[in-house]
């Protein structure tokens, strides 16, 4: 499968966060998430495994009971059902990979 950026839509999620759905099938999904400085990804959990690669920016991430500052090149893994969230300290972009895919993002 090829997914070309020109064929995708940037969704404004509000409060300084936007999302672009990338290639996906039933087993896996790539998602680009852009944050403005000060934007918050509120604490939440879901049944999907999630791998996050920090493309740019500086974030304070909480996964479970741990909180760390992360920057470009850092990678985070979130187990299913574990609470996680972030605060963007310097505008940036994350690349999230979910398995299975987030069908709720396509609705």
Automatic annotation (TrEMBL):
Domain Cupin type-2: 33-89
The organism's place on the tree of life at top rank: Bacteria
Pfam families: Cupin_2 (PF07883)
UniProt cross-references to InterPro entries, sorted A to Z: Bacilysin_H2HPP_isomerase, Cupin_2, KdgF, RmlC-like_jellyroll, RmlC_Cupin_sf
Protein name: Cupin domain-containing protein
Organism: Buttiauxella warmboldiae
Species lineage: Bacteria, Pseudomonadati, Pseudomonadota, Gammaproteobacteria, Enterobacterales
């Amino acid at each position: 499968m090829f997914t070309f950026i020109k064929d995708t839509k940037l969704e404004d999620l509000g409060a300084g966060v936007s999302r672009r759905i990338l290639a996906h099938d039933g087993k896996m999904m790539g998602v680009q998430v852009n944050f403005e400085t000060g934007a918050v990804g509120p604490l939440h959990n879901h049944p999907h495994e999630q791998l996050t690669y920090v493309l740019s920016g500086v974030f304070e991430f909480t996964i479970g009971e741990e909180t760390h500052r992360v920057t470009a090149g850092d990678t985070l893994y979130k187990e299913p059902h574990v609470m996680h969230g972030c605060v963007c300290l310097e505008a940036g972009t994350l690349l999230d990979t979910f398995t299975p895919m987030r069908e709720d993002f396509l609705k």
